[in-house]
Amino acid sequence: MDGRKRCAWCTSDPLYQAYHDDEWGRPIVGDDRRLYELLVLDMNQAGLSWITILRKRENFRRAFDGFDVAIIADYGPDKVEALLQDKGIIRNRAKIEAAIFAARDVLAIQREYGSFSNYLWAFVQHQPIIYHRQSLADVPEYTPEAQAMSAALRKRGWRFVGPTVCYAFMQSAGLVNDHTADCWLAP
């Protein structure tokens, strides 16, 4: 233990602490691959704990070709079947197919908006929203911005992107900063 006070959701697990300290709430701008990766991981978290996903992240990266959307967009039935056999990831057909659909749509979004980053950051007017939450109890399940992102992605045909998933993504990708006042990374 390093003695640092962290947000209440962060356990003493070193992997969780590294994620909290080095990634969560730090803005990812202009990196479509990383944004797609985080959103797919959050989509896979639905019904599971985040630490479960973090422990499988390297397996996801390997199985999903480094989250290269151009490669994933070309996945066919054989690749879906291979992914369903991969014990290192979440083997859920609906989630795998949702990630493939998302990759195809990211390519369309890039054509329409210049980048996936531009599209996502528009939900927060291209500036991180910095909250000054006093405690974990003050952090909502989702915000109006997350609801808007969820509705927009669902309208495009995405699945596993409810407002709670979108808000978790917004937190992890730094579109919002929800480090609480007692955390050493508080804004």
Assembly status: single chain
How many domain units? 1
CATH class: Mainly Alpha
Mean pLDDT: 97
* N- and C-termini, Cα separation: 23 Å
Strand count:
2
Biggest sheet character? 2 strands, parallel
Query: In percent terms, what proportion of residues is strand?
Result: under 5%
Which structural class fits the helix and strand makeup? mainly alpha
- Helical region count? 9
CATH topology: Endonuclease III, domain 1
In short:
With about 190 residues, the chain is mainly α. The protein has helices spanning about 15-20, 30-45, 50-65, 70, 75-85, 95-115, 115-120, 145-155, 165-170; strands spanning about 130, 175.
Features:
187 residues, Endonuclease III, domain 1, two-stranded parallel ribbon, 9 helices
Detailed description of the structure:
This protein has 187 residues and is mainly α. It has one domain: Hypothetical protein, domain 2 (Endonuclease III, domain 1). Helices cover 52% and strands 2% of the residues. It has nine helices and two strands. The protein has a two-stranded parallel sheet with strand order 1-2. α2 (32-45) packs across α9. It is globular and about 50 Å long. The two termini are 23 Å apart. The model has no long low-confidence stretch (mean pLDDT 97).
